[in-house]
Amino acid sequence: MLARKSIIPEEYVLARIAAENLRKPRIRDRPRKARFIAKNGACNLAHKNIREQGRFLQDIFTTLVDLKWRHTLVIFTMSFLCSWLLFAMMWWLVAFAHGDMDPSTENPSNSTKWTPCVTCVRSFTSAFLFSIEVQVTIGFGGRMMTEECPLAITVLILQNIVGLIINAVMLGCIFMKTAQAHRRAETLIFSRQAVIAVRNGKLCFMFRVGDLRKSMIISASVRIQVVRKTTTPEGEVIPIHQVDIPVDNPIESNNIFLVAPLIICHVIDKRSPLYDISASDLALQDLELIVILEGVVETTGITTQARTSYVAEEILWGHRFVPIVTEEEGVYAVDYSKFGNTVKVAAPRCSARELDEKPSILIQTLQKSELSHQNSLRKRNSMRRNNSIRRSNSIRRTNSSLIVPKVQFITPEGSQSASET
């Protein structure tokens, strides 16, 4: 709010506002690229303009399993309710055609004995109750079939067959939704950030993966793909170009033994898409590294898949994951509170290509880090010495202040006697 003219001149106020606006840095953030795979593993992809919707009905079971829970429960309820109403209408028509609805047949005379198709079915409500009893095999005993109508026997057989089909499909759908493979993937976790550091003399891209359950993932394998927008020499633009990159695994097979959290490593060599990227170029790269973990659930035998991705902003250059597995009283303990913690380490800021061409860069980086580490140790030692000297001096001053000075007493004869306390 501007000040009044009587207090501050208008020219001064305008100049001050202009100066404040000039001081504020004008930083335009780079628009964030839409990632292909979210951190929770969901694919960020929307299907539009699908004209052949009938293909989903050809595989009705998979369609029902893929639906949301609220839609599945509505279909589950409506399928049983509609089948009960449909066969209730059929039972009512059978009873009406046979004449069971006639009031005269309710109290027949002794001379004529009337046998209905279904006993105690004289309205649509009673027919609906009989339909429920037939399909769910409750059988309260008040309404029952007779041998009078062959059509009623045919309807009974038809309703039993339809009821069994509905039970098999809907209960199977509910079971598959509760035992879906991606539910097991909820306990497979990845580190929020990935790192690039030197391991065995090579720049490596690393991330950590772990399993929170004690039941293991059998034949677990990890794949890494780089997704980026590329343009071919012919001018064709490929918005989602996928490139597989190898994973450094000391075992011949690609399987891992995921009994404890592991650090998955990718050596940045000539085959890697990260070969020409340096630390300064990483923030400007429009790429996404997708990690896919596949395996078989030990308890159910269902193949599961867990996914995540790392964009350029989530890759830390010159960091390393802290160890989280320790041995305590003969048992290996995993501290998941440090699962994503990293520490800064010495790493060259150049690309892997430059490091291969000039191996001396790595030696110089390690020497500088060693010198800086020694200097930091010296500073710490000197600070400790200074602190100890200051403490000793303060203790001496305190002790000297506690010493009582000599006191002289003057006797009436004028003689002086000194006493020391």
Automatic annotation (TrEMBL):
Chemical reaction(s) catalysed: K(+)(in) = K(+)(out)
Positions of the UniProt region annotated as Disordered: 372-395
A molecular function GO annotation: ATP-activated inward rectifier potassium channel activity
Subcellular location(s) per record: Membrane
Domain Potassium channel inwardly rectifying transmembrane: 37-180
Transmembrane segments: 73-94, 151-175
Recorded GO CC terms: monoatomic ion channel complex; plasma membrane
Keyword terms, alphabetized: Ion channel, Ion transport, Membrane, Phosphoprotein, Potassium, Potassium transport, Transmembrane, Transmembrane helix, Transport, Voltage-gated channel
Membrane topology, from the record: Multi-pass membrane protein
Biased composition (Low complexity): 384-395
Signal sequence interval, chain numbering: none
InterPro entries in the record: Ig_E-set, IRK_C, K_chnl_inward-rec_Kir, K_chnl_inward-rec_Kir6.1, K_chnl_inward-rec_Kir_cyto, Kir_TM
Annotated site residue numbers, Role in the control of polyamine-mediated channel gating and in the blocking by intracellular magnesium: N167
Gene3D superfamilies referenced in this protein's UniProt entry, alphabetically: 1.10.287.70, G protein-activated inward rectifier potassium channel 1
One of the GO biological process terms: potassium ion import across plasma membrane
Entry-linked PANTHER family: ATP-SENSITIVE INWARD RECTIFIER POTASSIUM CHANNEL 8, INWARD RECTIFIER POTASSIUM CHANNEL
Family: Belongs to the inward rectifier-type potassium channel (TC 1.A.2.1) family.
Protein name: KCNJ8 protein
The gene coding this protein: Kcnj8
